[in-house]
Design goal:
- The chain has 170 residues and is an all-alpha fold.
- It has one domain.
- Helices cover 85% and strands 0% of the residues.
- It has six helices and no strands.
- Helix 2 runs parallel beside helix 6, helix 4 crosses helix 5 and helix 5 packs antiparallel against helix 6.
- The longest helix is centred in the last third of the chain and has 39 residues.
- The protein is elongated, with a radius of gyration of 20 Å.
Amino acid sequence: MIVSIADAHVGLNVDVVVGVAMVVGLVGTLVPLLPGLPVVITAAFIWVVADGADLGQWTVFAVVSAIALTGMIFGSLLPARRASASGAPRWTLVAGAVGVVVGAVIIPVVGAVIGWPVGVFLAEWIRTGNGKQAWASMRATAIGVLHGAVVQFGAGLASVGVWAVAAWRW
């Protein structure tokens, strides 16, 4: 098979665009309201389709997707487990998610980060009427969210690493 310079140039452009998208996905694992790991999966899919779609690339896509999906599942379960361990019901997490959205609208950039703990605290304070217990639930849930973000970031790094090795290979 003869590969022209133009073909190599297109492949390099695809790799660069996909690499940038994957870095955005990694950032998204740490920043609320950015879909981190779904961006990584989508970027890997685009790489496969745009770069030839051979069996090896589909295998890389499957591995990247499996790692990312596992990270999403475990990263989402950790806050719920921490909330339950502190005695807070799961709907408290919904209040935290609402707080993220409201915070992002009211205070752009940092509001989402502030909104989560405020939403959880208010929900627990309303539920229990006890500020100390609400604070303890908010703290436990926040630790779970941080652990979940670390798990998702780690899964993102592993996924991007698998893709980077494969992109270098192809």
